[in-house]
Write a structure and sequence with these properties.
This protein is an alpha+beta fold. Helix content is 56%, strand content 11%. Helix 1 (2-26) packs across helix 6 (112-147) and helix 1 (2-26) packs across helix 9. It is globular and about 70 Å long.
Length: 319
């Protein structure tokens, strides 16, 4: 069973390298708003978490040569067999990038030596993944324990002398916790609360947890760590852009000043803190931000749809 799971995880990780690499290139397009880039990371999460997808002639993997050794239908993976070839063409499929298995329900390797190698690798993989997950849980617990001392102000707003930067804490009933030095009724306070409420509305803490969990399971793939850092950065920058849409140039300067003021607190792992993730880049982005024109927004939306189709689908069935 562990061999089969590891074989699927390894295939997903190899597949995701192409997805992450393309998304890293897309996010270099300066004219593209982070509000359009940020949702694209869900495609990488999908590829890293779900082994199967539908085939398409538009898939990126139609152009990767012989890298895709075989496409395995879900029926074949579960031990069922479909006699109708036309049905197989449109069924959910798993891309096999490795080609060392003879059959897949469960995975049986072509040679005894391969079986021993993959069995050992699977044991090492699950031990390190479990250790990383345990570490993340402990850090989250310790942080949550600290923040439980926060004093309630009103609604979802709390205050704590343990923080240097405002933070959205919690997964299912998140709270906005501000440091003692921040007046929530000041202009800066209202800007910061608007930022944290965007995080809350989008359920960003849950997305952070998902990103961390996925990276723990794919710890052996260096691109997943690059993805996680870029994902956190785009989360904050897209949130900044959402907030400053209604601000004028002077107000954006004040917002940038608030970013600089609260750029100190780096302790939190699962919570969305106002001063986290590349403050220098965020300040430059805020000060230079220009609203998208209607044509620019339409072009960005089309690009988002195109990238989604290209990266979400598998190549056509090759047998």
């Amino acid at each position: 069973m562990l061999n089969t799971v590891f074989y699927l995880v390894l295939n997903m990780s190899i597949t995701s390298c192409f997805v992450i690499a393309l998304l890293l290139l897309v996010r270099q397009i300066r004219l593209l708003s982070r509000r359009f880039v940020f949702p694209l990371w869900a495609l990488a999460f999908f590829r890293l978490a779900i082994p199967f997808s539908l085939p398409s002639r538009l898939s990126l993997f139609n152009f990767t040569g012989g890298l895709v050794k075989k496409l395995i239908t879900v029926d074949a993976l579960t031990g069922k067999h479909t006699a109708d070839a036309a049905t197989e063409e449109v069924s959910l499929q798993v891309m096999n990038m490795i080609g060392t298995a003879g059959q897949y329900a469960p995975v049986e390797y072509k040679t005894e030596a391969l079986r021993r190698v993959f069995t050992s690798a699977a044991i090492i993989w699950i031990i390190i993944a479990a250790a990383l997950l345990l570490t993340a849980v402990i850090l989250y617990y310790l942080t949550g324990k600290e923040l439980k001392q926060a004093v309630h102000i009103k609604g979802d707003l709390y205050r704590s002398d343990m923080l240097l930067s405002p933070v959205l804490s919690g997964l299912f009933r998140p709270r906005i916790i501000i440091p003692d030095s921040l007046d929530p009724d000041s202009d800066i306070g209202r800007m910061i609360l608007a930022h944290e409420r965007v995080h809350k509305h989008r359920q960003d803490n849950l997305w952070r947890v998902l990103g961390i969990l996925i990276t723990c399971f794919h710890w052996f793939n260096p691109l997943t760590w690059v993805m996680l850092k870029a994902f956190f950065s785009d989360m904050e920058r897209s949130c900044d852009e959402t907030v400053i849409l209604r601000y004028n140039a002077q107000e954006r300067k004040a917002y940038a000043g608030a970013l600089l003021r609260f750029a100190e607190d780096k302790r939190l792992l699962v919570s969305a803190a106002f001063g986290h993730s590349g403050v220098k880049v965020r300040i430059v982005n805020v000060l230079n931000y220009k609203k998208l024109t209607l044509i620019g927004a339409a072009a960005s939306a089309l690009l988002l749809v195109a990238v989604t189709v290209i990266l979400l689908t598998n190549p056509q069935l090759r047998g």
